[in-house]
């Protein structure tokens, strides 16, 4: 695994690989001086994971494409009407020119930035 990541230039951005199944840690590797306590910006990986989890939730009947953020969460007025479909298609209607804070999800979940 280490050589497969280290020796292939196209994989130069991989910083860590963690694989678990049913709560059991199967693989945990860190590259390029990364440590298990480091926080990482996952960029677009999050979209794929959340889309998959959303599909599972829809399949189980826990939510629909029409479910809004205001149903399961307490959010401010302009975000309350954003639906699951809006999130999946990135058409929330929020101003794309506004400043985005990478730590906003951490604050939303009440997790300090230095969480380890």
Secondary structure topology:
Blueprint: H1 2-6, E1 16-21, E2 24-30, H2 45-59, H3 77-80, H4 84-89, H5 104-108
Antiparallel strand pairs: 1-2
Structure description:
Helices cover about 30% and strands about 10% of the residues. By secondary structure, it is of the alpha+beta class. It has 2 domains: about 1-40, no CATH class; about 40-115, no CATH class. It has a two-stranded antiparallel sheet with strand order 1-2. The longest helix is centred in the middle third of the chain and has 15 residues, at about 45-60. The model has no long low-confidence stretch (mean pLDDT about 80).
Give me a quick take on this structure:
This protein is of the alpha+beta class.
Task: Please outline the major beta sheet.
Answer: 2 strands, antiparallel
Instruction: Indicate how many domains the architecture comprises.
Output: 2
Treating each run of at least 4 consecutive H or I residues as one helix, how many helices? Answer: 5
The coarse overall form would be elongated
Number of strands: 2
Which tags fit this structure?
116 residues; alpha+beta; two-stranded antiparallel sheet; 11% strand
């Amino acid at each position: 695994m280490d050589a497969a990541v280290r020796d292939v230039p196209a994989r130069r951005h991989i910083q860590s690989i963690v694989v678990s199944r049913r709560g059991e840690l199967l693989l945990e590797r860190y590259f390029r001086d990364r440590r298990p306590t480091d926080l990482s910006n996952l960029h677009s990986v999050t979209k794929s994971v959340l889309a998959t989890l959303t599909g599972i939730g829809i399949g189980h009947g826990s939510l629909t494409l029409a479910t809004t953020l205001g149903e399961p969460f307490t959010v401010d007025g302009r975000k309350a009407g954003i639906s699951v479909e809006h999130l999946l298609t990135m058409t929330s209607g929020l101003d794309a020119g506004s400043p985005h804070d990478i730590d906003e999800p951490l604050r939303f979940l009440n997790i300090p930035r230095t969480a380890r």
